[in-house]
Amino acid sequence: MSCPDCFRGGQAKGEPKGALTTLYGVTTYVALPPSSTTSKSTILFITDAFGLKLVNNKLLADDYALRTGHRVVIPDIIPGHGVEPAVIAHMDNVMKPVKWWDILGQLSRIWSVANAARHFVPFMLKASPDKAHIFKSELEYARKLKADIPPGGKLGVCGFCWGGYGSTNLCVEPAVEGGSEQLIDAQFCAHPSALKGPEQVVAAITTYKVPYSLAHAENDFNWSTAKMDTAEAELKQKYNATGNGENGYNYEFITYKGCAHGFAARARPGTADVQGADDAKEQAIKWFSKWL
Question: Is residue 224 a contact partner of residue 230, using CB atoms and an 8 Å limit?
């Protein structure tokens, strides 16, 4: 999780419709579906590095709840509650091309580097998504959610950037320690970060045959096209699975052309990210509507 795009993107506008509450001792944003729906299922939403501080995540959860008819919960589980959204402007300034003779431009860039580093360096030291204690907190929360779901209900999980590591790895976990029942019933992630390699995605799909959907940014140096192609090749060759239910394996990898890491949660105005974000949202809604 070291790419600059993890801390860049656009900030959405809108008023969240959900509410903050406390679930299992954790501050949680809850987006409820329309009162006319009868779903007993829940979607666990694991955010990008900005957590509940970035309104984009709440607005996206609201859309998921509205369109799928399932309850959506976002736990505030990132140490330090996530990166401050102000970092986005600093990172944009850092990445903006500046002529070497532009003294003011270079000074502005140095100032932005210092301000951005003040936020994301401590974050990376204590809140990298692959740290064992962070995944443990996600796992404990997910298991409590699963235990509280009424008969007939299912548990889905979605993860974005920082959250894609957790959503992917929760797919290999049992509902209870030492048990045989799967924890997750359907997974969606977009531009996941910190995955060790294709083998983690393959394991997420094959361990419990969890329906797995991934939205891939073409211009993503974190979860690259090469890694995705390797995962898909292993699924086809080793498991004889093309994603359409053969041998019980259901998955889809969709690449969004021209999009950068972070697009599905933080689309940058005026870029391919905007259409990509809309399409990725439809991808997730269709997936959860089908499998939950």
Answer: no
Has domain 4-90+128-291 been given CATH number 3.40.50.1820? yes
Q: How far apart are CA 287 and CA 290, in angstroms?
A: 5
**Comparing C-alpha atoms, which of 196, 231, 221, 214 is closest to residue 284?**
214
pLDDT in tens, 69-110: 999 999 999 998 888 777 765 465 555 665 556 566 555 555
Is this model's pTM higher than 0.70 or not? yes
Domain boundary assignment for the chain: 4-90+128-291
- The tokens describing 104, both together, are 């003011």
- Cα–Cα distance measured from residue 72 to residue 42, given in angstroms and rounded to the nearest whole number: 6
